[in-house]
Amino acid sequence: MKAAVLVFPGSNCDRDMAVALDAAGMDVSMVWHKDSALPDGLDLVAVPGGFSFGDYLRCGAIAAQSPICRELAAHVARGGYALGVCNGFQVLTETGALPGALLLNASTKFICKTARLTVETAASAFTACYQAGAQIDIPIAHHEGNYRIDDEGLKALQEEERIAFRYVENPNGAMDDIAGVLSENRRVLGMMPHPERAADAALGLTDGAPLFASLTEALVAA
Amino acid sequence: MRATVTVSLKSGVLDPQGEAIKGALGSMGFEGVEGVRQGKVIELDLAENVTEAQITEMCEKLLANTVIESYRVDMGA
Predict the structure, then answer these.
(1) What pLDDT was estimated at residue B77?
(2) Is the ipTM of this complex over 0.95?
(3) Position A123 pLDDT exceeds 80
(4) CB of A94 within 8 Å of any CB in chain B?
(5) Fewer CB near the terminus (10 Å): N or C of chain A?
(6) How far is C-alpha B66 from the chain's CA centre?
(7) Could you say which of A71, A86, A142, A143 is catalytic?
(8) At a CB cut-off of 8 Å and minimum separation 6, what does A7 contact?
(9) How far apart are CA A103 and CA A143, in angstroms?
């Protein structure tokens, strides 16, 4: 199983993501935003959290136009797996790999705390090791996590069970308490909470570990 | 040639910054401020051969996120 973690100027969760993927048994490489190719035989692209390009213009907007994101789009178009966390989720919406957009938190404040989430579906390569309906604790740390989508798009997410995680107590004003969404083929997940910060007992939280274990199982089977 | 691109949140999209500004104006004693929307202005200095179609493409692909934002282009100095 090969995974690549994209690195932009201002990424700051890239190494945490690499550690979590590595601990789950993946062969991880770091890929710089100016690179024009992803490693051969790649299974998963992870887009990490942080402040790519200083959040200039809009969070993720500049990163989405970088050379490596053209390769990311091609990987996704081929049916490859991708995981975007926090700023990575913002990048995935800006590239069009996931629908919707992330706006400033309704409180206008940066929020850094542990959020309780409900796992809404176990039917994905990211959530298969959870029980649907389970409640998990995962840290959030963001200023723009207020998920927005048009009514038609929201209906599609609901009907196709593509809302992967919801907040138990909505921290940021996100529509329908959405914390994470899946693509139409369920192979791309974007989420504001940070599972990589909750994947090792030494970090105090382990509820993120099943997400990485799910991916490993899915990619071995693939 | 200068193009001024004004990007605003679409109507109906909550603008927390606009709401905060509205609250501040009210607490300063300004009455009658019924709504505030905050956007951004992007000024482009362009060579003469840049077409309006290219400016539109710039707006659609990068300057605005049309999922949540609308934009207006004003040509001229």
Answers:
(1) 60
(2) no
(3) yes
(4) yes
(5) C
(6) 12
(7) A86
(8) A14, A30, A31, A32, A33, A48
(9) 8
